[in-house]
Specification:
The protein is α/β, with parallel strands linked by helices and about 280 residues long. It is about 35% helix and about 30% strand. It contains eight helices and 13 strands. Strands 7-6-5-8-9-10-11 form a seven-stranded mixed sheet. The chain has a four-stranded antiparallel sheet with strand order 2-3-1-4, covered by helices on one side. Helix 3 packs across helix 8 and helix 7 packs across helix 8.
C-alpha cells in the first residue's frame, strides 16, 4: 500500500531524521522525497511518498507524537484514494472537457462526481460521461440560496475539491472561508493586465506579446489566492483576436490540469499567501 505524507513546521535540526526513523520503525520504504526550507518564515516543508503494509490508522497513530512534538501541520493520504471533485463552469466548456478527458485517461487522479453551472450549456457534456449535473441559476436575489445549495451538495457527496473551470461568478467570502485550500480557480493572465469585459480585445488593441493563465486557490480576496501554477505563450502582431482567444484557452487548459494534478497528488503545501509545489 502506498501513502503520501506531507508536513510543514518550524524548522529545526533533526526533522528529517525523525521522519526517516519513523518510516524505518514502521517498516516502510521511501518512493519519493522532497523538502524545502523557507528562509523568511523559517518553515520546513516535506513531502514523502512511501510504501508499506501498515494500516493507515496505525500509521497516523504512530506519527501523531512526532507531529505534536515538532509542531507539525501534517497529513497522510492513501495514494489510491482519489479526490472527489465538483467542477463549476459557466458557458465556456474548454477546461471542463479537458479535465474530463484527462481524468478518463488517468492523467489527473480525481473522481468527478458532479458538474455544476449557472447555465445549462454544459449539461449534455456531463451527462454524456455519466456525471451528475446541477443547474443553479444565479441572480442577486438567489445567490445566497444557491450557494447554500452548493454547500449542501458538497457535504452530501463528500466532495474534497471544487474546481472553477471558467466559472464566471464571484463566490461569496463566506463560501470561500468554508473551503480553505479546497477551491482552485483558473483565469487569464495578461502582461499588462486587463480586467473587465472583452479582455482579449483589450490585449489585441495594446499589442500584447504574452498571453498566460494562472491557477490559484480561491480566497475571499478576488483572484489573489495562493498561486499553484502559471503558464505563458508568446504571440505576435500576426495574431487576430480569435487567435488570441484560442491561445488563451490552450494555456488555461494546461495550467488548470497541472494545478489540479499537483493538488490531487498532495504536491502543494500552503505557505501563507504562497505555495510550495513539489513537482
Amino acid at each position: 500500500m502506498e501513502n503520501t505524507l506531507t508536513l510543514s513546521c518550524p524548522d529545526k535540526p533533526g526533522l528529517v531524521l525523525a521522519v526517516s526513523a519513523w518510516l524505518v520503525e514502521s517498516e516502510c520504504n521511501i518512493l519519493e522525497s522532497d523538502q524545502f526550507r523557507d528562509g523568511p518564515s523559517g518553515t520546513f516543508f516535506m513531502r514523502i511518498k512511501f510504501s508499506g503494509d501498515r494500516e493507515l490508522r496505525t500509521l497516523k497513530s504512530s506519527f501523531e507524537p512526532i507531529g505534536k512534538s515538532c509542531q507539525m501541520n501534517w497529513q497522510i493520504w492513501p495514494c489510491e484514494s482519489k479526490h472527489r471533485a465538483l467542477i463549476l463552469v459557466s458557458r465556456q466548456d474548454h477546461c471542463l472537457t479537458d479535465l474530463i478527458y484527462r481524468t478518463k485517461k488517468g492523467e489527473v487522479p480525481i473522481e468527478i462526481v458532479l458538474v455544476g453551472s449557472n447555465h445549462n450549456d454544459a449539461k449534455a457534456i456531463g451527462e454524456s460521461e455519466g456525471i451528475d449535473f446541477l443547474h443553479f441559476p444565479i441572480t442577486p436575489r438567489t445567490k445566497d440560496r444557491q450557494e447554500k445549495k452548493l454547500l449542501d451538495e458538497i457535504e452530501r457527496r463528500k466532495i474534497d475539491l471544487v474546481i472553477l473551470a471558467r466559472y464566471m461568478q464571484i463566490l461569496s467570502p463566506e463560501f470561500c472561508r468554508m473551503l480553505p485550500g479546497k477551491i482552485i480557480n483558473i483565469h487569464h493572465s495578461f502582461l499588462p493586465g486587463f480586467k473587465g469585459a472583452r479582455p482579449y480585445h483589450q490585449a489585441f488593441n495594446h499589442g500584447v506579446k504574452l498571453i498566460g493563465a494562472t491557477a490559484h486557490y480561491v480566497t475571499a480576496d478576488l483572484d489573489e489566492g495562493p498561486i499553484i501554477e502559471q503558464g505563458v505563450e508568446r504571440v505576435d502582431h500576426r495574431k487576430s483576436v480569435i487567435d488570441l482567444v484560442n491561445v488563451g484557452r490552450d494555456v488555461e487548459r494546461i495550467v488548470l490540469a497541472k494545478a489540479v494534478k499537483y493538488h490531487a497528488e498532495q504536491r502543494v503545501l500552503l505557505n501563507g499567501n504562497k505555495t510550495v509545489v513539489f513537482e
